[in-house]
Design brief:
The chain is of the alpha/beta class. The chain has two domains: about 1-90; about 90-160, no CATH class. The chain contains four helices and five strands. It has helices at about 25-40, 60-70, 110-115, 140-150, and strands at about 1-5, 45-50, 75, 125, 155. Helix 4 links the parallel strand 4 (about 125) and strand 5 (about 155). Helix 1 runs parallel beside helix 2. The longest helix is centred in the first third of the chain and has 15 residues, at about 25-40.
């Protein structure tokens, strides 16, 4: 089970820059701290999550460092950082298709194969927000499960988590 801090900033554009605003670090830190204090002894919590769809910035880096110091036994994941950040132990793309990139205007969505082929990248890949109508559901599961079995770094998918 992934425990999420529920740090989400939909509607704060461009690209949710609260994550780079130091004025927001205390509020974000309080959410992460409360989550860890409340749930650290639950045996089913195996991954901490910094949230979902809140851009990426210095606040995420600070929260990641705090979490790793507070609980080095569990990995930390954050959807918004992709492979360009050290603020996640797991690369967890949203809506990734198996072998077709999706050229969205603001942020391109890479295919699973492209994520797995990044030079020097060895972190595991776990899809988030999977199994709904964003191009990876309604009949497409066979292709995904074939990829899960084919690529060792592709660890699976989570349904609706950040």
């Amino acid at each position: 089970m992934v425990d999420e801090a529920n740090i989400e900033t939909h509607g704060m554009t461009p690209m949710n820059r609260l994550s780079d605003d130091p004025d927001w670090l205390p509020a974000m830190s309080q959410r992460v701290t409360r989550m860890v204090q409340r749930d650290r002894n639950h045996p089913s919590i195996i991954i901490w999550s910094l949230g979902n769809e809140s851009g990426y910035g210095a606040n995420h880096d600070a929260l990641y460092r705090w979490l790793k110091a507070e609980d080095p036994s569990r990995p930390v994941q954050y959807e918004g950082g992709g492979a360009d950040t050290a603020a996640t132990d797991i690369i967890c793309p949203m809506y990734a298709r198996v072998d077709q990139d999706q050229p969205f205007p603001a942020v391109p969505k890479w295919s699973i194969k492209k994520w797995l082929s990044l030079p020097g990248e060895q972190r595991p890949l776990i899809l988030c927000e999977y199994a709904h109508a964003m191009g990876n559901s309604f009949g497409g599961f066979a292709k995904y499960w074939q990829a899960f079995r084919q690529y060792p770094r592709l660890q699976g998918a989570l349904s609706g988590t950040g």
